[in-house]
Amino acid sequence: MYRNLSDQIEKYLKSLKFEENIAYELKRRLADLLAQGEANADAACRALKLSRRTLQRRLKAEKTSFQAVLTEVRAELAVRYLKDERLKALEVAMLLGYSSISSFTTAFKSWYDMPPAEYRAKFLSIRA
């Protein structure tokens, strides 16, 4: 299972187009940190070897924020994880750092205008 998740994260990281900016580097680090269960600003700052204020300032210069980047990574990884039939929705929620399935469902609906179960059903019916 861990190997499959590592593969999913690796595919996500490869899908990111190369850019020389802090938001891009933060996305790469957050994907790994989510897998470790530590996707928070302090862990990201340690991984990037930046102070929290420096990270905030650099993200602001790129017209984004830590929360916006984290949300983008979660939304992209959620779709990848839901395509894996072996993962239950609760497992996907936990992998993305949500404490409950309801908070994950609420977030997913805000990103894709449908609950994760509906998205998965549509995806699986297209594949079949």
Question: How would you summarize the topology of this molecule?
Answer:
Blueprint: H1 2-15, H2 22-36, H3 41-48, H4 52-61, H5 66-82, H6 89-95, H7 101-112, H8 116-127
Helix pairs in contact: 1-2, 1-5, 2-3, 2-5, 6-7
Q: What's the overall average pLDDT, rounded?
A: 88
Q: What fold name stands as the CATH topology?
A: Arc Repressor Mutant, subunit A
Write down the domain tally.
1
Oligomer: single chain
Rg, alpha carbons: 15 Å
CATH hierarchy class name: Mainly Alpha
Work out the helicity level: over 70%
The CATH superfamily appears as Homeodomain-like
Distance between the termini: 23 Å
Bulk shape? globular
Description:
It contains 8 helices and no strands. By secondary structure, the protein is an all-alpha fold. The chain has one domain: Arc Repressor Mutant, subunit A (Orthogonal Bundle). Helix 2 (22-36) packs across helix 5 and helix 6 crosses helix 7 (101-112). The longest helix is centred in the middle third of the chain and has 17 residues, at 66-82. It is globular, with a radius of gyration of 15 Å. It starts with a helix and ends with a helix. The relative contact order is 0.11. The model has no long low-confidence stretch (mean pLDDT 88).
